[in-house]
Specification:
single chain, 107 residues, alpha/beta, five-stranded mixed beta sheet, 21% strand, globular
């Protein structure tokens, strides 16, 4: 399960209500986002490698973060960028569903 059962319906509804919103996320979560959205649009991107440029994210785009997924990827030796950038003024939290947190690029 990529999304926990307790929050699945609410999270699915949230994604379906925002079908055109660009979402950047890890590859575990991206697969589930695309599946829930029915692969109808190319509006999700992977955050890969430690050299990912957060400046390419446009104002209003979202980052979907799940610490458990990130921890698992790091155990598998994936290198990821410093996601502490989400705690700066460049991003604001817009929604949370248990371990799934949506941040919006504000600048």
């Amino acid at each position: 399960n990529f999304f926990d059962v307790k929050n699945l319906d609410v999270l699915k509804s949230f994604l379906m209500e925002n079908p055109t919103k660009m979402i950047y996320t890890d590859h575990f979560t991206k697969y589930s986002v695309d599946l829930i959205r029915g692969y109808k649009a190319d509006n999700s991107k992977r955050i890969l490698n430690n050299d990912f440029n957060f400046n390419r994210i446009k104002k209003g785009d979202w980052i979907l973060f799940n610490k458990k997924h990130i921890d698992e990827l790091e155990m598998q030796k994936y290198t990821l960028p410093d996601l502490n950038v989400l705690n700066t003024n460049d991003f604001k939290k817009v929604a949370a569903f248990n371990d799934y947190i949506f941040y919006e690029k504000s600048d």
